[in-house]
Amino acid sequence: xxxxxxGDVLIIPAYTAESEIAAVEIxxxxxxxxxxxxxxxxxxxxQSKDNADVLLFVQDRFYKDEGSNDYIGKIxxxxxxxxxxSISDRFQYGQxxxxxxxxxxALHDKDNKPYQHRFMVxxxxxxxxxxxxxxxxxxxxxxxxxxxxxxxNSFIGDYLHTF
Length: 163
Prior knowledge:
single chain; 9-stranded mixed β-sheet
């Protein structure tokens, strides 16, 4: 499986009411406070890599709030029911290992500093559409969740990386 890299062109389905079935609440600690943010799990396609599936997490105001300065429409062009955008340093990513296996992408407020595993564990253990859980598992979410459950609170995660 080829993984997304800077400059790749993604096709991202635009927000619809159906997107709500794939919304997750990510929770993490940052600066001695508990933080939460709502994200949508999105199945994007990497046009640069034979339309390979890309697991994408988009923070709510980036995806559905057209009035937000962070709205996806400010960095992407609309084609039909999709957004077309090149991966830039506006995006971050998480992955299963340093070789890039299981790489997934996030479009969100980069001041948010959750560990990578928070996205995967929340997706497969949360109340989210079955297709989203299956997609996350294809990107290694099951293995990550197992490692976290075995190590419990002693699990130290990696932050997201910027492209």
